[in-house]
Amino acid sequence: MNVSPDETPNRLKLFVDTVGCQMNILDSELVIAKLRAQGYELTTDPLLADTILFNTCSVRQHAEDKIYSALGRVKKIKQRRPNVAIGVLGCMAQKDQDEILKRAPFVDIVVGPGQLSKVPELLEKARAEKKPQMAVSKARYGGSKLEIVESFEEFDPIREQAMRMSPYQAFVRIMMGCDKFCTYCVVPATRGPEQSRDPLDIIEETKLLVDQGVSEITLLGQTVNSYKYTTTDGRQWRLSDLLLALDGIPDLRRIKFITSFPKDMTDDLLQAVRDIPKVFRYIHVPAQSGCDEMLKRMKRLYTVAQYDEMMARIHETIPGCAVSSDFIVGFCGESEEAFEKTVRLVERSRFKNSFIFKYSPRRGTKAHDLYPDDIPEETKKRRNNDLLAVQNAISMEDNLALVGNTFEVLVEGPSKSFQGDVDTATGPVQLTGRTMTDRICIFDGNPRLIGSYMNVKVVSVTGVSLFSEVVTDRVSHVKPAQWSLPVIS
Ligand code: 5AD
Ligand code: SF4
């Protein structure tokens, strides 16, 4: 039987739809935790919700289009049940502000990523005053540096176990914002100035997560390797120092960090990745293009030769390190020769995988104002497919070389293709877990293994996944909460 929200007046029902990056997933988790503390209850059915929130992304037009069309659907819910509160949160809220209310006047709250702590009070106010509420941060040139920084609030302390996608894994934000101002990118405008968080807060937050059963954390920052902080005792912290401090948390087993900026890939960091066994041997460090002219237009602050030199340093320092990258194809003025240079870069870099995007002009960015979006959509599509094919062939080749090898994985949960309920499954199900080089393994196993670490042997591969078998004589059934017991690895 469906319970209508009217029958449970004390528990407002909340539906949250999140698009975009890991930062957004974390932001949604924090907003949900805060609303639950105020008596809200999550629902997976928007038709049952009293409050519908969209946490949005602005990085490409496509992500925005998806939200505007979802808002079109939600309008019908609002017409039937006018008391339902609708919210637009995140980067699109910061970027479009009033325009959202013009295009979707039935929206009740518009809240930028730097104002998310205000969501509960704004929802209340919108309900009480029956008019839309907006909280956005200052524009990047809308005041003094301090005023702008202060308008992007830190919103990280509360963590609620029940809200994470996995009880064993968690994101931990170590930096907010970005100061690189790549000419195509809207992030410095939507997420504000670069600010590193106090390492002592990060360590405390991680300890809390570990107490809740988390054994793997992913440190998040737009340019995570630019992390720097001076504590009150005058000590300067870099990402390498933070990794070392986190390594000291006994029941924390794995630490990953994303996303790195090529120019800030210092030797101390690479040595930390090499020397600290808890740190993934995996670096996500977007190149964006393999052509100097394009990199200059993108204002990426490095040349192709410098990127190559960085790749060489990564592999010299950390044997077996996996590297992944992002690319934008069809950026303004990208000739066929320029694109071919990107293909060459992918060929010689042998990335584990690459995320490839067609250039999408963003209002408010330098590229939007300075350069015409002159590459036809068809050409962008073809270059996207061609580059992906080159990358996939490399991934396949490198994965084939792993057949027969055994890796330790954290069993994350059922694989994407598993249909059904793991809690009631009787026999083995298809499970998924990642290696310390961030490779995805797929294997059959008992759902009880979820959350534990075990060894799997690679049997066959695609460019994306390693199909594996559980190495039965070396299984660790130990769950994170019981890690005082020895773990066989
Ligand atoms: N168009 C296309 N892709 C973009 N990215 C950032 N801005 C744009 C844009 N305007 C890509 C970059 C970045 C990733 C998160 O999104 O490759 O690394
Ligand atoms: Fe955007 Fe460049 Fe900052 Fe990455 S480094 S978030 S691409 S401005």
Describe this structure in words.
With 489 residues, the protein is of the alpha/beta class. The protein folds into four domains: 138 residues, Rossmann fold; 117 residues, Transcription Regulator spoIIAA, CATH 3.30.750; 106 residues, Transcription Regulator spoIIAA, CATH 3.30.750; 77 residues, OB fold (Dihydrolipoamide Acetyltransferase, E2P) (Beta Barrel), CATH 2.40.50. The chain is 34% helix and 21% strand. The chain contains 15 helices and 21 strands. β20 and β21 form a beta hairpin. It is globular, with a radius of gyration of 23 Å. It starts with 12 loop residues before the first strand and ends in a 19-residue tail after the last strand. The protein binds 5'-deoxyadenosine and iron/sulfur cluster. The site of iron/sulfur cluster (SF4) has 10 residues, from α7. 5'-deoxyadenosine binds next to β15.
Structure, briefly:
With 489 residues, this protein is an alpha/beta fold.
Strand content: 15-25%
Structural class: alpha/beta
Number of domains: 4
- Average pLDDT figure: 92
CATH homologous superfamily descriptor of the largest domain:
Methylthiotransferase, N-terminal domain
Secondary structure tally: strands: 21
What is the C-level CATH assignment of the largest domain? Alpha Beta
CATH topology (level 3) name of the largest domain: Rossmann fold
* Low-confidence runs of at least 5 consecutive residues: 1-7, 479-489
Helix content: 25-40%
List cofactors, ions and other ligands.
5'-deoxyadenosine, iron/sulfur cluster
Instruction: Work out the radius of gyration.
Output: 23 Å
Strand ordering within the main sheet: 2-1-3-4-5-6
- What's the end-to-end separation, in Å? 47 Å
